[in-house]
Amino acid sequence: MENLKGPVAGSTSATCGWRAMLLPQLNRQSLYVYGSEMAVEQECIRQLQSGVFVIHPFSLMRSYYIMCMMAITFLNLIGIPMEIAFLDGHSGLAWEGFNVFSDTLFLIDVALNFRMGIIAEDGEEAILDIKRIRVSYLRTWFIPDVIAAFPIGYILLFADLQYQNNDNPSKTNKMMRILMFVRILSLIRLARVSRLVRFFNEVEKVSNANLEVVRLFFRILSLFMMIFLLCHWNGCIQYFVPMLEEFPTDCWVRKENLMNATVIVKYSWGVFRALSQMIALSYGSMDAPTNYVEMWIVMVSMVSGCLMYTVLVANATTMIANIDPAAKEYKSKMSRLEHYMGFMKLPPELQLRITNYYQARYGGKWFQEKDVMHTVSSALKEQILMVMCSRLLRKVPMFQTRDENFINAVLLKLDYEVFLEGDAIVRQNVPGDRMFFIDHGQVVMETDSYERELCDGDFFGETCVLTKGKHLATVKALTDCQCFSLSWDDFQEVLEGFPDVKKDLEKVVQVNADDALV
Predict the structure, then answer these.
(1) Which CATH class for the 413-516 domain?
(2) Domain coordinates of the chain in residue numbers?
(3) Which of 40, 119, 312, 453 is the most buried (most CB within 10 A)?
(4) Contact 442, 454 (CB under 8 A)
(5) What single-letter DSSP state applies at residue 431?
(6) Adjacent-strand bridge partners of 483
(7) Do the domains 413-516 and 207-322 match in fold?
(8) Which neighbouring-strand residues pair with 126?
(9) 77/194 Cα distance (integer angstroms)
(10) 3-state secondary structure string, 176-220?
(11) Interatomic CA distance for residues 7 and 23, integer angstroms
(12) Whose CA is closest to 329, among 318, 340, 321?
């Protein structure tokens, strides 16, 4: 099977292009839900055999559709308050066309949601049955979506055409009041903010990127977008309320001489006042509220600013707490270690060596290697150790001609160890039960008659793992060393499964013993 980003090749080779866009893709989330590429292919076959038009939640069309709807929704949430507050019915043909297009798209979205596959609550399957999709949608988001998709754009377009074609003054005034009511009614389209939140959540589910990174990115992006929308809406409200009152003489718009200013100037002042009130610096001008309406606007701004602070601090705290947990765990362990060393009154030199050991062993990130190895499959464990240690084993004469299965069995028994500069790894004439493979670092091997340096890829202690005898030399670390060790007990356990190799090694040991006697 090919490694595709699109639908699985075997199930879509005879499927036309548009139909293939409805099928599930190979991405991290689909593999997490279904477990394997073969299971994703079976899901494609299941959808094709159903013969019903349903958009799979992991399909390419769903991904593109969510991105498009997220952009359209965000533009609506920006443009609608701007139109109501500042454009005063002079939005122009382009904006009215965009409104009609958006309303059409949201109405289509309501219809498509009856054909949009959903992920089950347990996250273990995608629901593609039309009846279950319909019941689920009607019970959850149907009513909010219908309210948000109410076609205000069509009503405004029709009313504007009637207003421009009517020369009767009384009917014109009546039409203006109707237009104002409809524009206020169009605020219900701000309910589309719920869709924006849903789209953000769905983007996380169908993304092909690293899940944790994606969640963090979209959490930050959604947080700042919501804060921006809150400030934007508040700024529009600052101007919209005085406009409804037909700009009384004591309102801030007249005091700042903004009656004939451009839209961008009015909007800038409105946002400035909103931010000033939300962060409680000032009221945005030299004067306090002059009437109860402005007073209520200020109070609402202050409360929304407090909520913004609360949400921002809570999310920032959560994200900071979840960033690099391994480094935080390492610092916590080191803090406990320092308390322990102080309580035991260890010499400063020894405390420094212990601290250096932890830094060399873990590199500032706390992890339990055995826990990691126990949680992965045996095949993955073999591959990990093969990458790290296979070259080390192949340099040892007694392993060079051995079967691959035997080498893999030995790899699973290796333990990772770190030694600091100056450590005596083994001592001459002391019983030993391990041999060592140097991954990185430099050691010196010393006896009464000679001295030899070993470095990356070398090994020592092989006689101990064969005979469990005494070490023939003292080995000291010249630098910080990262090694792998193989114990006699583990090696004997491996040999029990390979009797032929065991007999060969016993012969080698006997020959060496005879040579020593001669």
Answers:
(1) mainly beta
(2) 18-196, 207-322, 325-362, 413-516
(3) 40
(4) yes
(5) B
(6) 417, 438
(7) no
(8) 119
(9) 11
(10) HHHHHHHHHHHHHHHHHHHHHHHHHHHHHHHCCCCHHHHHHHHHH
(11) 6
(12) 321
Determine the residue type at 140. T
> Would you tell me the crossing angle of helices 211-244 and 193-206 to the nearest 10 degrees?
170
CA angle, 288 as apex, 282 and 289 as ends, to 5°? 120
Tens digits of residue pLDDT in 54-90: 888 888 888 788 888 888 888 888 888 888 888 765 6
CA gyration radius, the chain = 36
pLDDT digit string, tens, across residues 342-393: 999 999 999 998 988 888 888 877 777 777 777 777 778 878 888 888 888 8
pLDDT tens digit sequence for 415-438: 889 999 899 999 988 888 888 999
Region of 247 on the Ramachandran plot (φ > 0 left; ψ -120 to 50 alpha; else beta): left
What is the token pair recorded at 282? Answer: 């000032």
Alpha-carbon distance values, 157 to 192, 244, 345 (Å): 20, 21, 83
Output DSSP code: residue 115. Answer: G
With b meaning 16 or more CB within 10 Å and e meaning fewer, what string describes 203-230?
bbbbbbeeeeebbeebbeebbebbeebb
Predicted confidence at residue 368, as pLDDT, reads: 76
Under CATH, what is the fold of the domain 207-322?
Helix Hairpins (1.10.287)
Q: Which residues of the chain have pLDDT under 70?
A: 1-17, 28, 35, 88-92, 121-124, 159-192, 195, 197, 199-215, 281-287, 509-518
Contact 85, 236 (CB under 8 A): yes
What is d(CA 308, CA 302) in angstroms, rounded to the nearest whole number? 10
